[in-house]
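Researcher: Checking consistency across runs. Here is C-type lectin domain-containing protein again:
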Amino acid sequence: MGVFEASSKKHKRHEEMHGAFGFSASILVFFSFFGRIVADKNDCGRGWSRLEKSKSCFMVQTNHLRWAEAERECLSKGGRLSSINDDVENQFVFELARKANLTSPTFWLGRLIRVTRTGAYEWHDGAITRFSEGFREAPTGTDMCLSMWLDFNRPEGSWIEWQCSYTSGYASVCKKTLKKTAFSIPTSPPSPPTTHLSRRCCLQTGCGQRCEPNERCVPDDMNCMWKTCIDHGVGWCLPSV
């Protein structure tokens, strides 16, 4: 009796654990499914890395290009050479480039168009920010191309003005705004209108004017019911539905 009770309790515990596991697995699948939807909804696209705080996406281009060439590459991918709006973005871009194992410790950022009357910086992509901690030294002018340094004698993540036409070129970092894609319910295209070339027929048996097997003979008088129409009346061949 004791063995039977122990076996029953063990079986009961197994069922409880199985039920709990099944419930947990269901919850995991549920959240995994909806988590995937959210990720897809906000996805930057292949090759891009997302910074949630600024709702922006960044991509490292490892090939060495002049500034204008790198900008064209970014534009072809839906972005611009990266502006930097705050320290979070600066650190994110620095880490992204560092992990890319660039052959040169310098890469292109965007370009400063001007300094506003309030002292804020306007970037070439329209971003306006007062963040200037990236400058090791105060910028000497406006409309200058900027590069970020990963090492050498400058602090990591610092910026320096550089000639846009530098012939050897640098790697670069592109930036684009994260765009959320709204869900859409797919709809089937409207069915094309169906036409049927009708011809005369007669209802009586043995008549030469017969309908095809997939048709039925409908009397001229559409107000009468099929079963009450006279057998020798005439009608039209219509599809059987």
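Researcher: Does this match what you'd expect to see?
Model: One thing to look at in this run: Confidence is low (pLDDT under 50) at residues 20-41, 222-230.
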